[in-house]
Write a structure and sequence with these properties.
It is a single chain. The chain has 2 domains: 180 residues, 3-Layer(aba) Sandwich (D-Maltodextrin-Binding Protein, domain 2), CATH 3.40.190; 113 residues, 3-Layer(aba) Sandwich (D-Maltodextrin-Binding Protein, domain 2), CATH 3.40.190.10. It is built from 10 helices and 13 strands. It has a 7-stranded mixed β-sheet, with helices on both faces. Strands 6, 7, 8, 9, 10 and 11 form a 6-stranded mixed β-sheet that branches. The radius of gyration is 20 Å and the shape is globular.
């Protein structure tokens, strides 16, 4: 298979990978049929790290996917999740590993279907957290009334939606709300006292007691961040980010790709971890995302407007 850019996604970095077809699970499609050499399955990865790192780690997984599914793949890492969502709607993307909020958009607007969800250190759900400086005197959510709080991005599940819902449920009204753009930026803002509190993603400590939440991202810059910045509270859990299929794909293709992912990720755990810190995959049902949909509705967020603003 020749290397090629995924032309419909001009902003994407893409990589086409050639697999050895000997011993493949199914015969490769012919001509221009989807999954053939001339018309590979287009798989997009929402950027969670440097694009080059994602593509490098996806290389052995993609090769395995081709062998196990019988389809050729073209892998891309677009600039942001909105490009992926729109690609799923325009059929320029067939499958995607997408963030949770991006899935809500793709499902509501374009009928995308969740096939699998990420597993991280045995967990298939994650939470958001609200952090404050340890010396702030802030001991509860109520103490955030009249304070300045930083969120990550308006469309961030853990860095905005879940935390905002917590504050709304407790009838807490901050004096000012700002957006830092990234989780590490929000942690730094709290550490440096630029804001009174911040909302980021939460992950439990690893078996060795090492923190794995957003504070780990600035520990090199601020070695004492674990002592200086504490977790005030956690949000309700929601399912991890899913692998989704666009509307209109045959159940045969969906099942083949789903089965290949489950097998290949097991064979290449270290590489998969390098893609987005996932250690495995698990089955998922769309209904598992309903609590998040309810939160979005209660916050009166318009999913269609989110697409337009990006």
């Amino acid at each position: 298979m020749k290397n090629k850019r995924l032309s419909p996604l001009s902003l994407a970095l893409s990589l086409s990978l050639l697999a050895g077809w000997a011993g493949s699970a199914a015969a490769a499609p012919k001509g221009k049929e989807l999954g053939s050499r001339k018309n590979p399955v287009k798989l997009s990865m929402v950027p969670s790290a440097e694009s080059s790192k994602i593509l490098t780690n996806m290389a052995p997984i993609a090769k395995c996917l081709e062998k196990e599914s019988g389809y050729y793949f073209d892998i891309s890492v677009p600039n942001n999740y909105i490009v992926v969502v729109e690609g799923l709607g325009s059929e320029k993307v067939d499958f995607a590993f997408i963030n949770t909020f991006g899935y809500l958009l793709a499902n509501e607007r374009f009928g995308a279907v969740a096939l699998l969800k990420a597993k991280r250190h045995g967990h298939t759900t994650y939470k958001g957290q609200i952090i404050v400086r340890s010396d702030s005197g802030i001991k509860s959510l109520k103490d955030l009334a009249g304070k300045k709080i930083a969120f990550t991005d308006p469309a961030s599940t853990s860095g905005h939606i879940l935390a905002k819902k917590l504050l709304q449920d407790q009838k807490v009204k901050p004096a000012e709300e700002v957006f830092g753009g990234k989780h590490d930026v929000v942690v730094s803002m709290v550490y440096q006292g630029q804001v009174d509190a911040g909302a980021t993603y939460h992950s439990p400590k690893d078996p060795n007691g090492q923190i794995m939440d957003a504070r780990i991202r600035v520990k090199t810059q601020f070695p004492d961040v674990e002592e200086k910045v504490k977790i005030l509270t956690l949000t309700e859990p929601i399912p991890n980010d899913p692998i989704v299929a666009r509307r209109g794909l045959s159940s045969e293709m969906q099942n083949a790709v789903k089965g290949a992912f489950l097998k290949c990720v097991t064979q290449h755990v270290d590489a998969f971890k390098g893609v987005n810190n996932s250690t495995g995959l698990a089955e998922v049902e769309d209904a598992e995302y309903n609590p998040l949909r309810e939160s979005v509705a209660e916050l009166k967020m318009d999913l269609g407007e989110t697409l337009k603003k990006k």
